[in-house]
Amino acid sequence: MREYDGGGGSGSSRAERELPPQSPEEQARAICLRLLTGTPRTRRQLADALAKRGIPEEVSDEVLSRFEEVGLIDDAAFAGAWVESRHHGRGLARRALARELRTKGVDSALVDEALGRLDSEQEEETARELVARKLRSTRGLERDRRIRRLAGMLARKGYPEGMALRVVRQALESEGEDTEDLGFGTD
């Protein structure tokens, strides 16, 4: 009795029926296209992925440069979209956004340019909104604990200490909390 070989008929293995091996350039293009299908990525993220898969650096550079030429990789656009999305979606401040972009390999000049679109007033307004949302869950806690919790939340999102304490103080004052003895963030 003959075993069923999966439909090949000639007993050939699956590997033998696959496409012929690709050149490193073809492999690099395929990897980049697959990675870019799911989400935009920076040039460095793609370069790291290619290196991890054993693509030679010169091949990687050539393919990535071509992708930049045709607009498939655009670190400036990536940085701008990242800042917009993460500031409005997660409430992250400039410092946290800069850290995230740098870890993704975005050049410092592009980071500064993207963050330049965020003005201080907009950043402070976002901090106020974050505190207003969290304020309700801190009711019933002692004042100092509320301050620590609210200011800590803003600090984790990258807001400067002075701004965080000022916004928290103002929010607590609007609820009728006495903040005279705190001595921080007075206007």
What does this structure look like?
The chain is built from ten helices and no strands. The model is unreliable at about 1-15 (pLDDT under 50). The chain has three domains: about 20-70; about 75-115; about 120-180. It is mainly α. Helix 5 packs across helix 7 (about 110-115), helix 6 runs antiparallel to helix 7 (about 110-115) and helix 8 crosses helix 9. The longest helix has 19 residues, at about 120-140. Keywords: Cytoplasm. It is found in: Cytoplasm. It comes from Streptomyces antimicrobicus. Modulates RecA activity. Belongs to the RecX family.
Task: Detail the poorly predicted runs.
Answer: 2-16
Shape call: elongated
User: Beta fraction of the residues?
Assistant: under 5%
Count of DSSP strands:
0
Structural class: mainly alpha
Largest sheet: none
From the alpha-carbon coordinates, what is the Rg to the nearest angstrom?
26 Å
The share of residues in helices is 55-70%
Counting DSSP H or I runs of 4 or more residues, the number of helices is 10
Number of domains: 3
H/E element string?
HHHHHHHHHH
How far from one another are the termini? 91 Å
Mean pLDDT: 86
